[in-house]
Amino acid sequence: MALQHVVLFSFPRELSADNDAALRAQVASWPKEIGGMTALRLGRDLTGERTRGYSRLLYMEFDDVDGLRRYQQHPVHQSFHRWLVERDCTPLAFDYSINGDTDLMASSTESTEGREEARR
Question: If residue 70 lies in a helix (H) or strand (E), which one and from where to where?
């Protein structure tokens, strides 16, 4: 069962250009260094409105919970988490299954499995 892992990041101060580049480089290395994810996106909020201080969003997809667990336990991810803690970051994470109940744009004739197969 496919799932999405979404994390919002709140830093107490705006990141320096060097820290911003380091954040992006660390995340960009994950497909090669960690693997197991089927989608990976990282972005900044466009407006700064309604964010309650969260400035960045990480979006990931995994084939199953085991893939998410392997990612979370991987030393490269653990190092990234320490990097966040050193910068007093407050992450907010949410994980959920992608299925007929959560995919609200699924047509009645197209199955979740068919869409997953088409993405590959």
Answer: helix 65-73
